[in-house]
Structures are given as structure tokens and as C-alpha cells.
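User: C-alpha cells for Transcriptional regulator, TetR family, please.
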Amino acid sequence: MPKDKPETRSYSSPLRDRQREYTRRLIMEAVASFVTEGSIHTFSVQDVADRAGISYASVYRHFPTREALLEEMYEWASELAGSLMPAAPSVIEEIPAWIDKSIPVFEQHATIIQAVISVLAALNINPESKQRRDELIDKIVDESTPHLSQKVTRRTAAVIRYLAGSQGWVTLRRQFGLDAEDTAAALTWALEVLIRDLKRQEASVNSKV
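Assistant: Done. Predicted C-alpha cells:
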């Protein structure tokens, strides 16, 4: 009878995992620094390795291009912020409170968040974490307004994505000079007004069905 093959065991070293995550953080922080300096289109893999203080091979093995580095920076920043963010809303009425509780996280990681926004504005990428967030908002809006047209729900979801995300925060903070408290108040107010009007439209259409 043929002998059974020995069972292959996977081995994960906590020390190795910590070292890998530390190296990733060094790389991503280096990328973020180039972006905030305005070098988003000119930095190289070698530049990142030099600034992070690690070998070129260590960076290139996982991120061989500038685009790969930028997309990974978005995912890394999303993970970092996501671990601190409040629970995602399940109904449309919860969205204003969601952004109100998210503002302190944006403030805590302002440099990285602004770098992420620069990446999205400069490159034609749509990272997975952003897709999941957008799909969540689309789903909530669709479920809240079953009697409204697709055109109305699509444009409403687009505005909510902007107001309830980091882009709305950075616009009011950096472009219009509001402080954190006023930014949170303005965004939650705008969302509440929008959602209230949307529900009014839904009720009006529903009453005629």
C-alpha cells in the first residue's frame, strides 16, 4: 500500500509577521511623504526604498511600479483608518452620525488622508476598499428609496459618497478653512437636509402608487 504523504503544515511566525507589517508601514509612509510633497508623478521605487531605509529589492518584490505603490498606499491608509472608524451605517438615517464620528479619525491621520485624496484625484484607480464603501452607500440609498427613479437614487448616492467621505472633510477643512467642529456640523447638516428631502420625495411617490 502506498504510504500517506506527510501532512504539510503552514508556519506563521509572529515575529516575522510583525517585521513584514513594519516594513510595509515604512514603505507606505515614504510613499505618503512623496505624495504630500507634490511628487506623485515623479518618485520612483528606488526613491521610496531610499527614504524608507530598506533595500530596493524589498520594495520591488511586492510593488514593482509607482502605480502599485500608490494603490497599496490607499489600501493601507484605509485599513489604518478603518480600524478606528465607527461601525458602518445600515440605514440611510445613520449616515450623518457616521460622518460626525468619522471626523476625529480624519483629523488624527490628516496627512495620510490628504495623500490618499491626492492619489485618487491624480490617478485613474478605484481601490477595492473604496469600491466596497461606495457599494454600501448605493445599497443603503436604493433600499431607502424603492419608489424613486434610478436617476434620482444614483445622483443622491453620489452626493452622499462625497459628503460622508474624506473628500468632503478635506474640502471644508483645507479649501474653506473651517475647523474640525464646524466641518463636522456642516457635513452632518447637509446630509440630514439631503436625506430628509429624499425621504419626502419617496413618501410623495409612494402615496401615488
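User: Anything notable?

Assistant: The chain has a mean pLDDT of 88.
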